[in-house]
Amino acid sequence: MGNARRVLPSVFICSTRSDGRAADTGQSGDRRDEVPTPGYRSDLGFRPATMPVAFFGRGHYMSRSVMIPSRVSRGWDPSRPGRRPAGTFGHRRGRWVGGALAFVTALTVAACSPGGGSSKPAGVAVPDPAASVTVFPGDDTRGVTLTDHVVVHANAPLADVSVAREASASEKTEPGVLLGTFSADRRTWTSAGGLYSDSRYQVTATTSPAAGIVGTKSVRTSFVTGVPEKAFKVSWDPVAGQTVGVGAPISLTFSAPAPDRAAVQRMLSVRTDPPVLGAWNWISNRLVVWRPQQYWTPGTKVHVEANLAGYDAGGGRLGVKDRAMDFVVGSAQISKVDAATHIMQVFRNGQLLRTMPVSLGKPTTPSMDGPHNVLGKSPEVIMDSATVGIPKGNPDYYYEKVQWAVNYTSGGQYVHSAPWSVASQGRTNVSHGCVNASPADAQWFYGISRLGDIVDIVNSGRPPDTSQLGNFWSVPWSVWKAGSALPVSDQPETAAPTTPPAASTAVPSAPGGPGASAAGGPGASAAGGA
Fold it and tell me: Whole-angstrom Cα distance, residue 357 to residue 526?
């Protein structure tokens, strides 16, 4: 033993079969469960010693040989009973061998443990993905709900997204665009507005070059929206392209009650040039009115929007489109009427145009004080007191066809021609509440009047009824803005409106409402008439 060379143990690492047992190493016969038997001495001074192979885990066995130095195994035959000679297993010198076997065991466990590393060959690169874009709603989808949003998503930053809307004959809309916003990483774009009814949309999107993404991608898709069973629409006054007087409020009437005033008001906007301070006031769930704090300045350009597309008003009723219109404020025409002196003076931009003798409401049916704004005009109006609770047979009953009628309250009060009261005009008040003028003066006044002009009556003894249209200028500003469903800023909106269309001096026919006659023209209220 003293001459034996020290050789480190040789280890033959096993492989593992798919059934969990060590794979055959190529020796003939079943040699996988033991080390080779002794019986020869190697040229290196080793000879194998027989020993059961250790079980190193589920389904893993060491195979081949564990070579043990001959100086350790010499003289020991496991088949011979009795004490093992010094230097064999179990002796103090065998501790080195035990350590060597522990080392072998550790190597064998590491080498034979299944799933310990990647199944992919080392050095094989995963290819980068190609650029891709998805669009919702999908291409050629029909009947898309108006409450849906258009969403474009890509695996690379989006360079550009555009959504174009084609004109719709059924909704009487022109072509337009749908705006939206990008996410922080620009990989998602989401529409910000609602969808129009019965309209085709074209979506175009393109990605930017990006690290780790192969190429760029451009897509073009389209979809068509459906038509709701019930529509939530709005009409307004003034109308697009109109030139109005300095007292014209902006009145919006909805086709059904607004279920949430604040939500609807957020979809409305008024922008002016120059900026003007104003506020919305809800008269009812179907009527909301915007009024400036003071009379308009002549020449002001006004842009109004009602962006109701996609709004769910409940009960299956949806906003079918956005609307926008522009109008301009014309000259400041203000007529001052004094019931005590029976005189009416007409001013334009501060200059007196004409002084007219008039007759106002008699003591039992007085005219109404306060500044009024012109609501409309008609060359002829039927005034039937039966429509306002004064039937035939009543001493105060009247039925008259009047000409050159300029309406200034929804209660049925007008400035109109009254040839039957010319003798009283300028002297006494004999009407049922209207302002009577001579045929010549009434025709002249009719010709120069327009929506929003001011008719300011004083000394009649009857306060204004602010529940009636035409009397909103009698409402104090603090009270007016309290009727808003949202907080009112003390600063006007600064965004300028779009360029207004060519001015129009047309004034609509006087509206119906309280006091409308059965013949279709506005009739006088109990306080109005010839």
Answer: 23
Same domain for 384 and 319: no
Q: Which residues contact 412 (CB under 8 A, 6 or more apart)?
A: 383, 388, 433, 514, 515, 522, 523, 524, 525, 527, 528, 529
Residue 138 domain flag? yes
Instruction: Give residue-wise pLDDT tens across range 427-442.
Output: 999 999 999 999 999 9
Residues 322 and 437 in one domain: no
pLDDT band at 447 (very low <50, low <70, confident <90, very high): very high
336-346: pLDDT as tens digits: 999 999 999 99
**Domain end call among 177, 204, 227:** 227
Distance of CA 119 to the CA centre of its chain: 49
Question: Both 145 and 265 in a single domain?
Answer: no
Q: Are residues 320 and 343 in the same domain?
A: no
Cα three-residue angle 51-52-54, rounded to 5 degrees: 120
**Three-state secondary-structure class, residue 383:** strand
Domain boundary among the residues 310, 329, 348 is at: 329
How many CB atoms neighbour CB 469 within 10 A? 23
Sheet strands (E) in 241-340: 243-244, 250-254, 268-273, 278-282, 287-292, 301-307, 312-314, 317-319, 322-329, 333-338
Q: How much is the pTM?
A: 0.70
| Better pLDDT: 511 or 207 | 207
Q: Is the pLDDT of residue 9 over 90?
A: no
CB neighbour list of residue 58: distance below 8 Å, 6 or more residues apart: 20
Residue 164 resides in a domain:
yes
**How much is the pLDDT for 112?**
41
195 and 298 share a domain?
A: no
**Whether residue 265 is found in the same domain as residue 344:** no
Could you tell me the CA-to-CA distances from 519 to 129, 150, 173, 470 in Å, in that order?
A: 74, 50, 34, 23
Strand 343-348: give its sheet, edge to edge.
Answer: 351-357, 343-348, 333-338, 454-458, 370-373
Convert the pLDDT of each residue in 23-35 to its tens digit.
444 444 444 443 4
Q: How many residues does the chain have?
A: 530
- Give catalytic residues, as residue numbers: 416, 434
151 and 192 Cβ atoms separated by less than 8 Å: no
Nearest to 358 by CA among 415, 401, 411, 443: 415
Q: Are residues 359 and 457 in the same domain?
A: yes
The residue behind tokens 């004094």 is 338
What would the two tokens of residue 83 be? 């004490």
Range of the domain at 262: 231-329
**How far apart are alpha carbons 442 and 435 in whole angstroms?**
10
Q: At residue 40, does pLDDT exceed 50?
A: no
Token digits for 443?
Answer: 């025709």
Q: Are strands 133-136 and 151-154 parallel, antiparallel or unpaired?
A: antiparallel
The amino acid that residue 179 corresponds to is L
User: Are the beta carbons of 225 and 201 closer than 8 angstroms?
Assistant: yes
